[in-house]
Amino acid sequence: MIGIAAAVDVAALKDTTLLNMGIFGIFVAVTMVIVLRASRNNKTAADYYAAGRSFTGSQNGTAIAGDYLSAASFLGITGAIAINGYDGFMYSIGFLVAWLVALLLVAELLRNTGKFTMADVLSFRLKQRPVRIAAAISTLAVCFFYLLAQMAGAGSLISLLLGISDWGGQALVIIVVGALMIMYVLIGGMKGTTWVQIIKAILLIAGAAVMTIWVLAIYGFNLSSLLGAAVETANNPAVLNPGLQYGKTETSKIDFMSLGLALVLGTAALPHVLMRFYTVPTAKEARKSVVWSIWLIGLFYLFTLVLGYGAAALVGAETIKGAPGGVNSAAPLLAFYLGGPLLLGFISAVAFATILAVVAGLTITAAASFAHDIYASVISKGKADADTEVKVARRTVVVIGVLAILGGILANGQNVAFLVALAFAVAASANLPTIVYSLFWRKFTTQGAVWSMYGGLGSAIILIIFSPVVSGGATSMIKDANFALFPLSNPGIVSIPLAFFLGWLGTTLDKNREDTAKQAEMEVRSLTGVGAEKAVDH
Amino acid sequence: MGNDAHTPDAAASVDFEQVQSTEQFKELRKRHRSFVFPMAVAFLLWYFAYVLLADYAVEFMSTKVWGNINVGLILGLLQFVSTFAITGWYVSYSNRRLDPIAKEIRDEIEGHEFDKHGNRVSGVNK
């Protein structure tokens, strides 16, 4: 079986560069035309941020799937399963189960109470300024971590396609990719971005389906033989069992739990996913979109299991690790093994489109949050008109894009799914407690919200900075220094409970009581959708 | 901004505390919470049980059931099944038990039944 693994000649990939770039160029051109057409009607702030609330549940559901199935899901999970076996599958499960939190507790209630951003909901019945600022800062932080992961993924992918393995070349690739993505958002706004998400989600799921069936066909549609082949290539029966990556020490076992916690609680607190619920006209459509996306996402994650073990069996972990782009190159290498340069070109273009679309979604969320929550509501105290607000949003896009490019260069080479899990941990710590408390706990106060958000955000980020991810290890961002005082690579297990606790403590110690009329209004609006549903009911 | 969630609407002068204290609204809230809370606890427990098994019961999870398919893989796939099942269950519950009553309350509010200024105009929209 080792002989088959050698069939993937990484060096030969360079000969296909022209073809790849051709397929890729066509994709960029087509999506650009769509974005331009979609953006013609971007007039108001509701158009720019929430696509005029004109999407149906199934369209939005597909777009959510597009937003969610990022490079982390496709490149990251496939790579994680190919190399670490069963432990990589954990990502698929956590990323999917997490949607139940969004479906049951957050999506519809949020759609009914908000306008454009997460902060609209969080500050609904609390004091506007402090809560809005805190929510906007945590939105920016989560988007930054998520963007970092996507940029690192883009770097891996293009390096593999172009055979660039030196650091400077990869950095240049990330810069070019980042610049291209900024353009999309500047031109398209939410409507353009949503259409790119929809197209990309369809292409990605279709591409993954083709590869899955192909891999299964090689093994006579017998999952057991596929797993057997993966064991044989890896020469290690443990790839089918949990613990290959996380079972080594007691610390790594706790790290696995921390990852599990962050994954399942992060989704419902991701600002760019939450913002998607505003692009539909009613709560019922919001529910439909979540259901639609749960099916699409679940299906896709079943594919990743086959793709991951397929890459392990057919390409082999050693070849994957040795390729430019490392662990993130498992899916493209599998495509090359199966369908040669043409399938590789297609899959890479899709993967690249994935990154592009997700980056666009994240950037627009971050920009909306800054322009709407900090600039319009706090700096100009509600006096800014919608035009200025959109202008500020566009400028923010550029700033965030540049920051993400710089971060992406630093994070280059890390597993994308792992990096995204950090964003999940930050989101679950900073946002989820306040979202849940303000929707379901009548007595929750401003002080509780502020303590929980800053406490969760601060502890998550500080723990990441002092974790082995940033320094002290062979795969750290800064290899030459060691200030890894915190042993876990995912902070969730500490920072998420801490944030829930701080929300409770801040509320209990708060002498001020919140406006009961506002609480009543939020509760009635969130459950009945009054006011938010008008356009459709009558 | 034509279709904002909070444009001045029929809800503008509504006494929400009055709505909140109606039996009808309390019933809606009870129906919503009595479904989503137990369900959220249940799936989180099931998920964490799975994570803990994968973490600390490696031998059990590695038990082969047929061919190369082991307990861990089956439990993992069951997480997918339970997620799909809960999704379907929630949708059917909302359609049957939540949406009708939410719409009733919404219609009453928009028919000015809870106007702060006391001009109760019941029967509109019915």
Automatic annotation (TrEMBL), chain A:
Upper classification of the organism: Bacteria, Bacillati, Actinomycetota, Actinomycetes, Micrococcales
Membrane topology of the entry: Multi-pass membrane protein
Similarity remark: Belongs to the sodium:solute symporter (SSF) (TC 2.A.21) family.
Residues annotated as transmembrane: 18-36, 63-83, 89-110, 131-149, 169-189, 201-221, 256-278, 290-312, 342-371, 392-411, 417-439, 451-471, 483-505
Primary site of residence: membrane
GO biological process: plasma membrane acetate transport
Protein name per Swiss-Prot or TrEMBL: Cation/acetate symporter
Keyword match Membrane: yes
Origin species: Pseudarthrobacter oxydans (Arthrobacter oxydans)
Keyword terms: Cell membrane, Membrane, Symport, Transmembrane, Transmembrane helix, Transport
Keyword Transcription part of the UniProt annotation: no
One of the record's GO cellular component terms: plasma membrane
InterPro entries: Na/Glc_symporter_sf, Na/solute_symporter, Sodium:Solute_Symporter
Subcellular location: Cell membrane
Gene Ontology MF, one: acetate transmembrane transporter activity
TrEMBL record, chain B:
KW Transmembrane helix (keyword) present: yes
TM region(s), chain numbering: 35-53, 73-93
The species this protein was found in: Pseudarthrobacter oxydans (Arthrobacter oxydans)
This protein's name: Uncharacterized membrane protein (DUF485 family)
Pfam families: DUF485
Highest taxon, organism lineage: Bacteria
Sorted UniProt keywords: Membrane, Transmembrane, Transmembrane helix
